[in-house]
Design brief:
The protein is an alpha+beta fold and 399 residues long. It has eleven helices and 20 strands. It has a single domain, classed as FAD/NAD(P)-binding domain. The strands form three sheets. Strands 5, 6, 12, 13, 14, 15, 16, 17 and 20 form a nine-stranded mixed beta sheet that branches. Strands 1, 2, 8, 9, 10, 11, 18 and 19 form an eight-stranded mixed beta sheet that branches.
């Protein structure tokens, strides 16, 4: 069987892998030194086409300002705007055990919005459409990685149908259970949080006011993320052993329970979609890179989603790796020296964000009366310090 050669193979055509593919394809096309380089994207499932008549996807992402800039660079932002996205202008967070609260507003830092809530399948399908426009990308789907062999001057990739490919560099963008990471022999530190996220789309008696609402309870936060049609995507963090009961709960009881848990900030829940749940855990790959291997996104790290930073970290990974690869002085993209620069650029941010999310989870999950009192006092004090408060939101936006 004939072997096909590529300069870069990306395992995983989800949001992060496809972002990298678009950035690299553009970079190759714009630089005479890279003009003949080719990319393959290996993806197991074809993205579903966007249908404005279909209900909202249960999985959404809060896209930060820096992620928006990167998506603009790929050329897909206009396509997203032509589908359905929901900018949010404010964020209101409060402690369910007391009177502590904090409010962030885009106008206070001189921007139009704090970010955009976008369905995952809208982002992925838009990126897939963009990939189809690049003549230097081969989209191999449905295909899966079967075997991986690292040689001194190339990597050899075998797909499920026994297709053989060679490349200078393999990038694992195939998610938290990465086959690429496994075959590359990269270990991962994983911590199960004992929590799961229940997701659904709800409509409410009161408008969401282009605001993200989040109430912290000892068992986990309940977040309402505003959608363009006035409904909200909810992410409710619950103990994993209790989550199935909420997924199966009678609809009427579920609606009243959700409204009560959000402290009736948006009044009654008037309708609810189907429900689903996903386990939460944090992880960090021991190494993001090896000779001819690089990991990005969930293949390299996962974090608790309470601040919605997971996909934003992955998109920043893609941008950092693309930046490093496109300035590689040799034709060989897989040399360890250059890949280590990518790892150094991203590991610190990823680990710091993961630990910060774990800290918030533990702080707001603490039921000690003294801790609860200090926590509420701290939130109220911070809410009255606009300089510090606004710096926090700028950091979250990636500005």
């Amino acid at each position: 069987m004939k072997t096909k050669d590529y300069d870069l193979i990306i395992i995983g055509g989800g949001m992060v892998g496809s972002t990298l593919a678009c950035l690299m394809a553009q970079g190759f096309a714009q630089n005479a030194r890279h003009a003949k380089k080719r990319i393959a994207v290996i993806e197991a499932f074809e993205p579903s086409r966007f249908d404005p008549q279909q209900p909202y996807d249960l999985r959404v992402s809060a896209i930060s300002a820096v992620s928006r800039q990167i998506l603009q660079q790929t050329g897909v932002w206009q396509a997203l705007q032509n589908k359905r996205i929901s900018p949010y202008e404010a964020m209101h967070v409060w402690d369910g055990t007391g009177d502590g609260e904090i409010h962030f507003n885009a106008a206070e830092i001189g921007v139009a919005n704090l970010g955009h809530i976008i369905e995952n399948n809208v982002i992925q399908s838009s990126l897939a459409e963009k990939i189809s426009q690049f003549s230097n990308i081969d989209w191999l789907c449905p295909q899966r990685l079967k075997a991986l062999r690292i040689e001194e001057d190339h990597a050899r990739v075998t797909l499920d149908d026994n297709t053989l490919l060679t490349t200078h560099l393999v990038v694992g963008a195939d998610g938290a259970h990465s086959k690429c990471r496994e075959l590359a022999g990269i270990a991962v530190d994983r911590e199960h949080y004992g929590q799961s996220g229940l997701v659904a789309v709800v409509t409410t008696e009161v408008s969401h006011q282009a605001t993200a609402w989040q109430r912290f309870m000892p068992s986990g936060p309940l977040a309402f993320l505003p959608l363009a049609d006035g409904s909200s995507s909810i992410v409710w963090t619950l103990p994993s052993d209790r989550c199935p009961a909420y997924v199966a709960m009678d609809e009427s009881k579920f609606k009243s329970t959700v409204a009560e848990t959000l402290d009736y900030k948006l009044g009654a829940i008037t309708s609810v979609s189907q429900r689903a749940a996903f386990p939460f855990y944090g992880s960090q790959a021991k190494n993001y890179v090896k000779p001819r291997i690089a990991l990005i996104g969930d293949a390299a790290h996962t974090i608790h989603p309470l601040a919605g930073q997971g996909v934003n970290l992955g998109i920043k990974d893609a941008a950092a790796l693309a930046k490093q690869l496109l300035k590689t002085p040799t034709a060989d993209l897989g040399l360890l020296k250059g890949l280590r620069r990518y790892e150094r650029a991203r590991r610190g941010d990823n680990v710091t964000t993961m630990r910060a999310m774990e800290g918030f989870r533990l702080l707001f999950g603490h039921s000690n009366p003294f801790v609860m009192n200090v926590r509420n006092l701290g939130l109220n004090a911070l809410n009255k310090l606009p300089v510090i408060k606004n710096e926090i939101i700028r950091k979250a936006m990636g500005v």
